[in-house]
């Protein structure tokens, strides 16, 4: 068989003349998506907690190197604070949505607990079970300032509940003699317990049954039931 004559190399100008585009250099590195990285960090803290989540875990989940993590977020502690805020902004609407649109306080609380049963068990999207804020033990792990961040977030739930119940008193739905702070704490305690049970594997139907029993307690304390 006759060997073919070797083709001489061409430079870029020759290639362009021949109609062949020159070889391209390496493409631009993909831009860092800070929001996407924060979402991944939030899910990791949500699933594992602060102390059990290592920098190596975070960099793997976020798809960045540790220098990039520190450059973007400052420290693991600062990243956790951002993650808590991101969690509240992005996911709390799953459980509080109907609460803010309900016509009565009872409907609001029922909506909150029923939506919690769905969201906490992962039925409202591909999210970890339980509530990141409720389940956080960061304060008892020796991180005092971070513990204050989650305590403040928990306290805000009681404030929201109490404010809605005070409106219900003004509207005549709840008697003025009811201890609103205690009633708000009752609702918060039920929801917190649901979060723990969801993390342990309880299903949505089980938690919805808990919500229905809790509303019997609401009715017993408030002394009224909605019209059929």
Key terms for this structure?
single chain; 228 residues; mainly alpha; 11 helices; Tet_transcr_reg_TetR-rel_C_sf; DNA-binding; HTH_TetR
Short description:
The protein is an all-alpha fold.
Give a description of the structure.
The protein is 65% helix and 0% strand. It has helices spanning 12-17, 34-48, 55-62, 66-73, 76-91, 93-101, 105-120, 132-135, 144-170, 180-199, 204-222. With 228 residues, the chain is mainly α. It contains eleven helices and no strands. Keywords: DNA-binding, Transcription, Transcription regulation. InterPro entries: DNA-bd_HTH_TetR-type_CS (IPR023772), Homeodomain-like_sf (IPR009057), HTH_TetR (IPR001647), Tet_transcr_reg_TetR-rel_C_sf (IPR036271). Residues 54-73 bind DNA.
| Whole-number mean pLDDT | 88
- The geometry reads as elongated
Structure classification? mainly alpha
Distance between the termini: 96 Å
Q: Please outline the major beta sheet.
A: none
How many beta-strand elements? 0
Describe the protein's topology.
Elements: H1 12-17, H2 34-48, H3 55-62, H4 66-73, H5 76-91, H6 93-101, H7 105-120, H8 132-135, H9 144-170, H10 180-199, H11 204-222
Helix pairs in contact: 2-3, 2-5, 6-7, 7-10, 7-11, 9-10, 10-11
């Amino acid at each position: 068989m006759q060997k073919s004559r070797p083709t001489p190399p061409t430079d870029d100008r020759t290639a362009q003349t021949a109609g062949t585009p020159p070889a391209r250099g390496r493409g631009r590195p993909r831009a860092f998506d800070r929001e996407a990285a924060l979402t991944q960090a939030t899910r990791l803290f949500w699933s594992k907690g602060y102390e059990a989540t290592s920098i190596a875990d975070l960099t793997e989940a976020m798809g960045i190197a540790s220098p990039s993590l520190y450059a973007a977020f400052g420290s693991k502690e600062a990243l956790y604070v951002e993650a808590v805020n991101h969690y509240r902004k992005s996911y709390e609407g799953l459980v509080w949505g109907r609460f803010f649109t309900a016509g009565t306080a009872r409907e609001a609380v029922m909506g909150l607990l029923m939506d919690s049963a769905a969201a906490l068990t992962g039925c409202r999207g591909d999210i970890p079970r339980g509530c990141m804020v409720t389940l956080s033990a960061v304060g008892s792990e020796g991180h005092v300032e971070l513990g204050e961040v989650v305590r403040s977030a928990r306290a805000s739930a009681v404030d929201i509940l109490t404010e809605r119940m005070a409106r219900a008193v003004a509207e005549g739905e709840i008697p003025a003699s009811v201890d609103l702070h205690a009633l708000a704490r009752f609702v918060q305690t039920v929801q917190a317990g649901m979060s723990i049970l969801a993390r342990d594997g309880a299903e949505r139907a089980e938690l919805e049954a808990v919500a229905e029993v809790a509303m019997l307690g609401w009715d017993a304390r408030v002394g009224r039931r909605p019209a059929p």
